[in-house]
Design goal:
This protein is mainly alpha-helical. The chain folds into two domains: 112 residues; 49 residues, Double Stranded RNA Binding Domain, CATH 3.30.160. Helices cover 74% and strands 10% of the residues. Helix 2 packs antiparallel against helix 3 and helix 4 crosses helix 5. It is rod-shaped.
Length: 190
Amino acid sequence: MRHCFTNFNLAPDKAALSRINDSLNTVQEMRKMRTREAEDSLRKLARQHATLSSQHREVISNHDSGKHANEIVALDTRKFKIAKQASELEVESERLDSELERLRMRLVDLDEQGVEGDEVARRAREADDPTILRLWLYRSLGIALEQDEAGNYNKATISNTKKGDVHVVNIDPKFPRWFYADYFWQTMQG
């Protein structure tokens, strides 16, 4: 059993989930940052527009119509540039939203697969590994085993569904295995 548990390598799966979570957080932060930047830009552009509008009114009252027409053209050009930038920011925001949704769907898929991978891969591993089959048998009987840092089983949790109670047993290597097997069986029988 110790050999089986040493072969479990959960670190890459945990690292992948951590990277996905970090990517999701990064995408969310980037989206918030870009939204804030767009809002700041829009506020700045609105202030500039208000300033230019007041300047434009001043120019109209003080200058001739030819000069005024040229300034209107310049302001219209600037306005269209601003509108184009706002449109580009909106498209980028929609792209980031779709990317975020895709990453959320991927995260849900990974959560459903669990640490051990998808159902097909897990069953293939379980069919070939006698330790996993033993652990599956123990779990189906309501026994959950816990390992210490050295890989030895040091604690068992036994659930009795008939009585609705749970027993926690500390496993001491001084006692033989048959002692614990009898104790587990008696506890399950109730």
